[in-house]
Amino acid sequence: MEEFVKSRIKQVLKGDHNAFGEIVEVYKDRIYQLCYRMLGNAHEAEDTSQEAFIRAYVNIDRFNINRKFSTWLYRIATNLCIDRIRKKKPDYFLDAEVKGTDGLNLYSQVQSKEMTPDEKVAKMELQELIQMEILNLPEKYRSAIVLKYIEELSLKEISEVLDLPIGTVKTRIHRGREVLRKQLRNI
Amino acid sequence: MNQCPVDIKEYMHEYLDGEISPEHEQILQDHLAICSDCKQDLHELEKTIALVQSMSHIKASDDFTLKVMQNLPREKKRVGIKRWFSHHPFLTAAAIFLILMSGSLFSSWGDAEQFSVTKVPNIVVENNTAIVPEGETVEGDIVVRNGDIRIEGKVDGNVTVVNGDKYLASAGEVTGKVEEINEIFSWLWYQIKNGVNSFINLLAGS
Ligand SMILES: [Zn+2]
């Protein structure tokens, strides 16, 4: 996969911008999911993940072709999410309409074809609860936890994405796990 | 509780990260066997991980890629398209050939047996020859088809001759470009050049 993506990057550098579309196809779900779990709503996740790809395109000539492209892309997206979390206006969550819409989106996005409606609702509620607790994590624990357990990156990859020593990444994951344990122990 | 080893929590996390040393694992196992609080903690941590991992995979919208492509910065994109055209001149010509084939190209080539010249003031026509007389100035581009052009005066613009020749007198002057087109493929290119900028702009979305 990395080889395919690198051949597409070379095409983009030659000016074939449609090759970039093939790169977006490969990573769109992973990057969107990262943003969704970091930000907690579909609208912001869409905006941020779109912007991540646009930034990657604009800066593609700065990508070191000998590195892993996904790491570079995750880094752009994670930084955008963290920026957005920091800038977030406190009154954002008061927007009931947006919140309701997101619930619907989350509901429709739960992949649960063989479940009964009741099970779906139960699963959705559980997922919402977990999502809420992830959103309550301080952003430095949140990014480490999402990259580790949602995106399933290795500790080494996470340390490259976050530009932190592996030891620091571990500490953040450990603290994040402890906070979540206290919140989710009674489920 | 008081007898819990100082670093027992850290060992639990090492264990969860799959990076525990045999010595630490031994200490952890021995302690969990006698301490229900720590056993409970580890159990809760494992459950927490399982819950987070159980989150459904969510997908980007179906038009996600399309939207990204539409929002790429225009400047860079247009350069990209222009480069594509210059890297693939034959494909470009072939594509535009097909597009134009259904349009006016062949009719305009086919019925072009007759002499024609762009209607501009100050131009004189004699025996299938357009003449820009000495001392006169024609403002604007001139296209002559199936005939010649003799320029004794001044043309403030481009001159294109299709299936004909141009004669530029010593006193004649053309401020723009002068082109002679005598084959259908050149004619095609001429059409393309007129069409290609709008074609590029169409693709580039402007
Ligand atoms: Zn203990």
TrEMBL record, chain A:
Keywords, in A-Z order: Sigma factor, Transcription, Transcription regulation
Q: Which domain of life is it from?
A: Bacteria
Q: Which Gene3D superfamilies match?
A: 1.10.1740.10, Winged helix-like DNA-binding domain superfamily/Winged helix DNA-binding domain (1.10.10.10)
Record bears the keyword NADP: no
Pfam families recorded for this chain?
Sigma70_r2 (PF04542), Sigma70_r4_2 (PF08281)
Keyword flag Transcription regulation = yes
What sequence ranges are listed for the domain RNA polymerase sigma-70 region? 24-89
Q: Where in this chain does the record put each RNA polymerase sigma factor 70 region 4 type domain?
A: 128-178
- Which InterPro entries does the entry link to? RNA_pol_sigma-70-like (IPR039425), RNA_pol_sigma-70_dom (IPR014284), RNA_pol_sigma-W_bacilli (IPR014294), RNA_pol_sigma70_r2 (IPR007627), RNA_pol_sigma70_r4_t2 (IPR013249), RNA_pol_sigma_r2 (IPR013325), RNA_pol_sigma_r3/r4-like (IPR013324), WH-like_DNA-bd_sf (IPR036388)
Q: Would you identify the family this protein belongs to, as annotated? A: Belongs to the sigma-70 factor family. ECF subfamily.
Q: Which PANTHER family match?
A: RNA POLYMERASE ECF-TYPE SIGMA FACTO, RNA POLYMERASE SIGMA FACTOR SIGV
Task: Specify the protein name.
Answer: RNA polymerase sigma factor SigW
- Organism, per UniProt? Pallidibacillus pasinlerensis
Lineage in the entry? Bacteria, Bacillati, Bacillota, Bacilli, Bacillales
User: Which gene produces this protein?
Assistant: sigW
